């Protein structure tokens, strides 16, 4: 969210020409930070030989993403947990994270601003903290919940190889 609001603020003249903007957000990962910090290590990494090779063999990444290699991995390593081995945070930790993310959002809005009239959040309310939804109501921030439409859909709404929305999404 810091990146998105930073871009809206940095290119204010351009965005002023747009009547309305929908800002897609995922509560579980868009509020992890309250400011933009350049990641010089990542920029340097993108210029390495290993990174360039990886970009040229994206097909392997897609094949892995759709489970093409799961049979082989399961034979070698045994059945792996669906959550990639990460434990779900306990309720207290989850609540602490929600409060931290909400504070981060407030800090980002304070830093970059937010035009309530021209911007609407595009979110899945099923995966968004009720505290964030409540905060939006208090502050007059609009949101569009696409969750009910996705629930009605009987076929996949995402692409199998990179998890972006397909034409049903």
């Amino acid at each position: 969210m810091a990146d998105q609001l930073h871009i809206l603020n940095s290119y204010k003249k351009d965005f002023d020409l747009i009547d309305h903007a929908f800002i897609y957000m995922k509560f579980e990962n868009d509020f992890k930070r309250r400011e933009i910090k350049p990641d010089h290590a990542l920029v340097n990494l993108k210029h390495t030989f290993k990174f360039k090779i990886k970009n040229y063999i994206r097909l392997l990444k897609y094949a892995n993403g759709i489970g093409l290699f799961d049979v082989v991995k399961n034979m070698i390593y045994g059945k792996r947990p669906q959550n990639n081995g990460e434990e779900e945070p306990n309720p207290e930790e989850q609540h602490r994270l929600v409060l931290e993310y909400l504070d981060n959002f407030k800090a980002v809005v304070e830093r970059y601003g937010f035009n309530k009239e021209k911007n609407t959040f595009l979110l899945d309310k099923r995966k968004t903290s009720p505290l964030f939804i409540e905060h939006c109501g208090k502050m007059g921030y609009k949101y569009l919940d696409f969750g009910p439409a996705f629930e009605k859909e009987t076929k996949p709404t995402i692409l199998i190889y990179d998890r972006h929305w397909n034409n049903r999404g």
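The CA atoms of residues 18 and 118 lie 8 Å apart. Residues 2-152 form one domain.
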